[in-house]
UniProtKB/TrEMBL annotation:
InterPro entries: Beta-PGM-like, HAD-like_sf, HAD-SF_hydro_IA, HAD_sf, PGP-like_dom2. SUPFAM superfamilies: HAD-like. This is Glycosyl hydrolase. Its cofactor is Mg(2+). GO terms for molecular function: hydrolase activity, acting on glycosyl bonds. It comes from the Bacteria. Its EC number is 3.2.1.-. Coiled coil: none annotated. Belongs to the HAD-like hydrolase superfamily. CbbY/CbbZ/Gph/YieH family. Keywords: Carbohydrate metabolism, Glycosidase, Hydrolase, Magnesium, Metal-binding.
Length: 246
């Protein structure tokens, strides 16, 4: 067994192209709001700067702050709408779930090839996602049975775990797998995600560039960046752990 023998995958943008769906859902939420409020229009750059990889309500709050919009936080049970941060977050969730039903979803072929390779090599795997929709996305993509451990937004809230860029959810996934963090690889496509990996004592932080930029991922903590996981195989588990390189 190689020194790195667990792989902790982010979901949106790493295993499935749901990040693209989420990006369009956020645009559908914020574009009209920006017009109504008379502030700078929402762009894809806002997704990467303020939303990508964060828990949903934190993403709403961060984007609103970038436009100087103040709303009460509200509660997670607020009906979808625009009166509170949570109401907006729940409205976005309503939008994206409707898009999943209408459009369907398929995993990235290269990601499945990499998943097959590392599991065949004996590595344990888990999904660590800020999304509360992770189980339904995994089921829709036909890969739910590949992961016994899924730490998503619902699990994080139930256990009081801080969201990314905190390493807490990744650390909890490693704990559930029964492996030390130094033996685990974090796989992320978001700046907040590689920051989470870098902030923890993980063996390797692997970045997947789906649009944020390889340089940005490296700058914020990725040890290795690829444009698609199909570029790698199980030999990545043989790379020296981060503490051995320091």
């Amino acid at each position: 067994m190689p020194a790195l023998h667990a792989v902790l995958f982010d979901l949106d943008g790493v295993l499935t192209p749901t990040a693209e769906v989420h990006m369009r859902a956020w645009e559908r939420l914020f574009a009209p709001l920006c017009v109504e409020r008379g502030v700078a229009p929402y762009t894809s750059a806002d997704y990467f700067a303020h939303i990508d990889g964060k828990p949903r309500f934190d993403g709403v709050a961060t984007f609103l702050a970038s436009r100087g919009i103040e709303l009460p936080r509200g509660t997670i049970d607020d009906a979808p709408g625009e009166g509170t941060v949570c109401a907006l977050g729940n409205k976005k969730n309503e939008i994206v779930n409707r898009m999943f039903v209408e459009e369907g979803i398929s995993p990235y072929p290269g990601s499945i090839a990499f998943l097959d390779a590392v599991t065949a090599a004996g590595a344990q795997v888990a999904v660590v996602s800020s999304s509360r929709n992770a189980p339904s996305v995994l089921a829709a993509a036909g890969i739910a049975d590949r992961f016994e451990v899924v730490v998503d937004g619902t699990v994080a809230a139930a256990h009081g775990l801080d969201g990314k860029p905190s390493p807490a959810t990744y650390e909890y996934a490693a704990e559930l797998l029964g492996v030390p963090t130094t033996a685990a690889v974090v796989v992320e496509d978001a700046i907040s995600g590689v920051q989470a990996g870098a902030a923890g004592d993980f063996g390797l932080v692997l970045g997947v560039d789906r649009g944020v930029g390889a340089d940005a991922l490296t700058e914020h903590g990725a040890d290795l960046v690829v444009s698609d996981l199909g570029e790698l195989d199980a030999t990545v588990l043989d790379r020296p752990a981060r503490e051995e390189v320091r």
